[in-house]
Amino acid sequence: MPKYAGDRLFKSCVIPRSPAFPFSGFPKAFSFAAHGTVKLLQYSASGEEVLLGLLGPSDLFGGLTMLGQRCYPQNAFAQTTCCVLVITITDFRYLLRTYSEVALNVLDAVARDLEAAQATIRAISTLPVEARIARVLVRLADRLGEADDGGILIQSPLSQQDLAAMVATTSETVSRVISGLRRSGDIETGRQWIRNRTNLARLADEI
In this predicted structure, what is the pLDDT of residue 27? Predict the structure, then answer.
């Protein structure tokens, strides 16, 4: 895609940590995380927060509006200070019609999201909570982590409540499992280090 097309159609927004993005809940824009971590939340009928996922650089969100959904059911929050590239749905549809490579890349991204959603449903249905937590930690380490000789540092604040929402359990259960992983030396919770990815992946039944 020519550089001028992106410059003309995309708007760059720097979002400070915590507040909801201005367009949350509305089908006005399609967005890419360029820097930082975006938290996707949905609210239950009782008003409780349900964490749907954490997105990192190059991840996209708001895409269901392209498929005709009138209201985007997820709310996007800045988990860290973020730079987000925003494009209106009308302009993005223009890019899809004009540049086949863009359309193919978006199709690949949607397919990955669907595959991840199906894997999450299977995990919640079939895996014990210890394996579900290990699975989430491994995936976050792979997507948002920074590796060095000491392990992998997950570059995003992550609370036990967040983990509980991602694996469909309680904060108390997460606390118990995390304590066990810390005692075994697999993780360090002070700065969210993954010290032994191999053991976590084995626990998650991913190797």
Answer: 53
How far is residue 77's CA from residue 159's CA, in Å, rounded to a whole number?
Answer: 15
Residue-wise pLDDT tens digits, 158-192 = 888 888 888 888 999 999 999 999 999 999 877 68
Contacts of 14 (CB under 8 A, 6+ apart): 81, 82, 83, 84
Phi, psi (rounded to 5 degrees) for 85: -95, 125
CA 90 to chain centre: 25
Report d(CA 103, CA 129) in Å as an integer.
Answer: 37
Q: Read off the pTM.
A: 0.73
- Tracing tokens 């978006």 back to the chain, one arrives at 106
Burial 46-84 (b: 16+ CB within 10 A, else e): eeeeebbbbbbeebbbbbbbeeeeeebebbbbbbbebeb
**In which band, very low, low, confident or very high, does the pLDDT at 21 lie, cut at 50, 70 and 90?**
low
Chain-centroid distance of CA 132 in Å reads 16
* Residue 122 φ/ψ, nearest 5 degrees: -65, -40
Helices (H), the chain: 3-9, 89-98, 100-126, 129-144, 160-167, 171-183, 197-203
